[in-house]
Amino acid sequence: MMMRFSLLAVTLLLVSARDSIAELRLPSVFSNHMVLQRDMPLRVWGWAAPETAVVVEVAGQTKKGKADGEGYWQVELEAMPAGGPHTMVVEGDGRVQIDDILVGEVWVCSGQSNMQWNLASSDGADLELLSAEQPQIRLLTVEAVGTQEPLDDFDGAWEKCTPGTAPQFSAVGYHFGRRLQASLGVPIGLIDNAWGGSAAEAWTPREKLAADEQYADHLKYWEGQADKVDEKKIREEFAKQHDRWKKRMESAVAAGKPIPSWQHPSHPLLGNQRASNLYNGRVEPIAGFGIRGVIWYQGESNAGRAYQYRSLFPTMISAWRERWGQGDFPFYWVQLADFQPEVTNPTDSNWAELREAQTMTLDKLEHVGEAVIVDLGEGKDIHPKNKRTVADRLARLALANDYGMKIVAASPRYDSVRFAEGKAIVTLTGVDRLTTFDVGDVLGFAVAGDDHKWVNAKAKIQDGGKVEVWSDAVKDPVAVRYAWAQNPVCNLYSGAGLPVTPFRTDDWPGVTGGKK
């Protein structure tokens, strides 16, 4: 078993003291009102006095285990159908009872600020909250500090979805859960595990980064930062702040009130950029809890290193799957939205390259999907407020791929290009039909010749998912780009209303090549 640090190690790991390990306890991911994943064997784990016999009873099952020499125990439940409520009783050197357990579909909602962005700050929140009393939806928010040692737990608790608890929950996660629950008719558990501004390196285990030379400078930088300060003292100070929050959190849970917002640490060594900090502090404590899959919204913080993201992102996904130990679970992400002033002339862009890196991951891993939202951004705000449409596009992927719904799941993608007689014929895949939005002209294409000089191009939709592209200024085009800018002007959609995925046919050097 991988050694993980207990929350008992307060001064090193920023978490307040808990009961002695000699007393039976379960991690916070197991609490009243939780949702267990249906139709798969489920691991239940916790701690007790070393060598203590442990019995877990739930939904007519009785499973027996024994704590090892360090007090860790686990049992495996048989697969259960959707339903509930159930009660789980765990007995060993103590007794723990968990009430109001539902069995259904569980999804982790992770990433940076656009996933963390709460419902209260999103479009239509006042209207949405009128129907937020959803007893079949349960919410759990993971709040834990960044650490270089893997934690075994965090402080938090499952909550029922109500007009009181929903406002501060992830808006994308909430809308995704609402869509799934209405479509499937089963309980939905949502685990909000996002931290605004976080880099993908922070969500990736250190051993994966250390095994690849391209991350050496990143690791060396953070080692240097840690050498400059008394990290132990910094962590002790934040532990005091966390302990005050924990007391308020426990009081709220006991009173059935919404859990108060958690305050992030201000010191970067405890934060969201340092390599592996969030993997250890926020992924490790829930890894192994049965889930259907993950939805992910992140990338803005890695745009300056977009070429590196081509390998970093699939490495991170694979590491999560390996750690969870339940195979290649579905992993669906949101491609970067449009942001900053609209670009009317072709230009290089680190955000365009990050979008490309995200799309390339579709061809590197199984059971993954991408929600394209290049049409949903706000030029003046990196946090677009329309989270419902974002969630709907993620829900399409899950409903079609994992639940067998007969709907269009994904945006059309570039497949191939043919050049002839001064024009390019671009073929797209995943197309029912193509159409334009707002105006009849196709907007967003550019072409270049051997001189690598890009000019805006005209385009015409053809049958069979093809687009004819040309410019009178480029006699012999050799490359085509579509929606290739931080905030491109583009309007090509599938018949299902999904925007065509931004692409380029060339592999010419970009602005982030070699950035680490």
Task: Describe the protein's topology.
Elements: H1 10-13, E1 35-37, E2 42-47, E3 53-58, E4 61-66, E5 72-77, E6 83-92, E7 94-111, H2 113-116, H3 125-129, E8 134-141, E9 159-161, H4 171-184, E10 188-194, H5 206-210, H6 216-227, H7 231-255, H8 277-283, E11 293-297, H9 306-324, E12 331-334, H10 350-360, E13 368-371, H11 387-401, E14 413-420, E15 423-429, E16 434-436, E17 445-448, E18 454-456, E19 458-462, E20 466-470, E21 479-482, E22 492-494, E23 503-504
Parallel strand pairs: 1-7, 7-10, 7-11, 8-10, 11-12, 12-13
Antiparallel strand pairs: 2-5, 3-4, 3-6, 6-7, 8-9, 14-15, 15-20, 16-22, 17-18, 17-21, 19-20, 21-23
Helix pairs in contact: 4-11, 9-10
3D structure, described in words:
- It contains 11 helices and 23 strands.
- Strands 1, 3, 4, 6, 7, 8, 9, 10, 11, 12 and 13 form an 11-stranded mixed beta sheet that branches. A 4-stranded antiparallel beta sheet has the order 14-15-20-19, with no helix packed on it. Strands 18-17-21-23 form a 4-stranded antiparallel beta sheet, with no helix packed on it.
- The two termini are 33 Å apart.
- The longest helix is centred in the middle third of the chain and has 25 residues, at 231-255.
- It has helices at 10-13, 113-116, 125-129, 171-184, 206-210, 216-227, 231-255, 277-283, 306-324, 350-360, 387-401; strands spanning 35-37, 42-47, 53-58, 61-66, 72-77, 83-92, 94-111, 134-141, 159-161, 188-194, 293-297, 331-334, 368-371, 413-420, 423-429, 434-436, 445-448, 454-456, 458-462, 466-470, 479-482, 492-494, 503-504.
- The chain is α/β, with parallel strands linked by helices and 516 residues long.
